[in-house]
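Issue 218. Parser rejects a valid record. Input:
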Amino acid sequence: MNNPTRCFDDDGRAKRTGTWLTASAHIITAVIGCGVLSLAWAVAQMGWIAGPIILLVFSLVTWFASALQADCYRNPTTGKRHYTYREAVRSILGGRKFKLCGIAQYSNFVGVSIGYTITASISMAAVKRAICFHRMGHQAGCHTHNNQFLIIFGILQLLMSQLPNFHKLSWLSIVAAAMSFGYSFIGIGLAIAKVAGGSNARTSFTGVEIGVDVTAAQKIWNIFTALGNMAFAYAFSMVLIEIQDTLKPNPPENVVMKKSISVGILITTFFYLLCGVMGYAAFGNDASGNFLTGFGFFEPYWLVALANIFIAVHLVGAYQVFVQPLFDFVETQCTTKWPESKFVNAEYPVKLPLYGSYTFNFLRFVWRTAYVILVTIVAMIFPFFNDIVGLIGAFSFWPLTIYFPIEMYIAQGNARKYSWRWISLQVLKYGCLIVSLVAVVSSVRGLVVGVQNLKPFQSVS
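Output the parser choked on:
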């Protein structure tokens, strides 16, 4: 007779099997996404001094705030688990802040879904263009419509979105993390080869030059957008609690999660610095918004194509890491509201080849399918890479990565009011607010300018 404790944890849920390794893989998958592709451009806006320093500052701030957040997984008095970020905010802060957190978190999930769909389609198109450049010559236009690739990515997500829950994604995150290492290494290698071969790129301590590359106003706006791009590069706090909820209870989850946070951010920062710095060294002030699809690299064409395949595969997994908590929230709300509905609650076991036993649910099928289709359509209408990335990063960084973790840490009694620790946390909180606000304004401006020349459903790489 099976021992039920072998199948369930003390809260009655399916036994958690996650380790620091799987949690690190989830973090790397969530962090190293399309954000890494814009870092060469971001460093180019700030130059050799400010660019790497600000990138390091973002990594340290994210690491610090994430460590505070990891301590919020369990209630310090009762030991009760908080299964989601919103649940932690509701339990510790309550009321209005809980509602604000929900708006910020789920809006960000939608934004990330759109951003990843756009980026994946651009990378898929870049594979076709790399082959075209090799056959037709580097002066050929080789332009291709992105819509077909947006649809392909959308179909893949329709299939992947039917996975029942976040706990089924460990294998997908490990594959996606491997892909992120792959294209990061390729991008870094191509940049090093270009520099070693004598790229003759124009670089400077202050980045793009006023009067040569941009106007004074453009320089300021681009720096603000670059701040949003860097913030987006470290966006994973909104799924941190969900990742932590996959861990075994022994050793304590917060101890294991802090180790995973340190490993994940250390690895990603190393790659970010290499991608940003080497990308800037290779292309200088002319660095494109996406340095693997801007075609500063042409040969070896197969390696450029392979890097973009890795990006697309990675984003299939990263999309799911961010969107599964949104799926779970909507489905939980529906279950609570309509507990007797078979459409909402009935599960039908189905045997699938290569997968095994799968439970089909009508609500899950209809809702998730509709969501993916809607996101794909929006991505086809607004295909702006840098400004979308900057807006998502700027909008989500302050409330989700900084404000709520600090507020929860203080509310748990870890910082006495007007003590040096409390004052330091307030300075950090409001300093990051200013950075986020200017980045939001800049990205919105960029989107407004882009929409003025927009031809819906005519995205071309």
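Fixed in the parser; the record now loads. The beta strands are 348-352, 356-360.
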